[in-house]
Amino acid sequence: MIEVLDVRKIFHAGRPNEFTALDGVSLTVHPRRVTVLKGPSGSGKTTLLGILGCMARPTAGRVVLFGREVTSLPERFLTEVRRKTSGFIFQQFHLIRGVSCLENVMLPAYPTGAKYGPLRSRALHLLDLLDIAPKASAKVEWLSGGEAQRVAIARALINDPPVLIADEPTAHLDTRLSQDFLEVMGRLKRDGKTIVIASHDPLVSGAPFVDAVVEMRDGRVVDGSSR
Q1: Radius of gyration over alpha carbons of the chain, in Å?
Q2: Are 38 and 197 within 8 A, CB to CB?
Q3: What is the bridge-based pairing of β-strands 60-65 and 2-11?
Q4: Which residue in 30, 40, 140, 190 is deepest, having the highest Cβ count within 10 Å?
Q5: What is the pTM of this model?
Q6: Is 143 in contact with 136 (CB distance < 8 Å)?
């Protein structure tokens, strides 16, 4: 379970361009459920996603991750918590050009000290599960958008995190590829993953496996409905 309690996030504090991205947000993300953060651009959903995934710190408020408050942990400890807890799928994928799909998937596991042989086998297994194994040796710049996203999902899963976090994952996909992505998310939920998605795409918020839709506007939660 992830909780944020009265969280505020202010950028450029004290400067003329000060901006409040989150303004007193409280939210609970329940385990093994799919939560969608919904709202227009600038609503604060991506900022909240970063705080839920320990990618960013709040300016004020508390963050509790599986019963442990992580708000003020030193960065070296927070990095370890983040690596063990969350896998990330970014809007632009952020795959490393010039290296293969397989190497991209394996990269997040290198700091864990995992042995190369078992790690490679796990990466190939994930690519196979996501129907992208034939592209394992291809460089990522040769992939289509849907293929790149499947590699990004495999990379997010390589450390077997309990939480999967996705930021606007269908923003650059057509309807068919968006539905393919949602099918994969439904499978991962059945496997016991906790999934948090920031998206303004009605295909995502309306997916039948989504448990809660949290609507945001102007840095606040304006509605949080469970199904």
Answers
A1: 17
A2: no
A3: antiparallel
A4: 140
A5: 0.92
A6: no
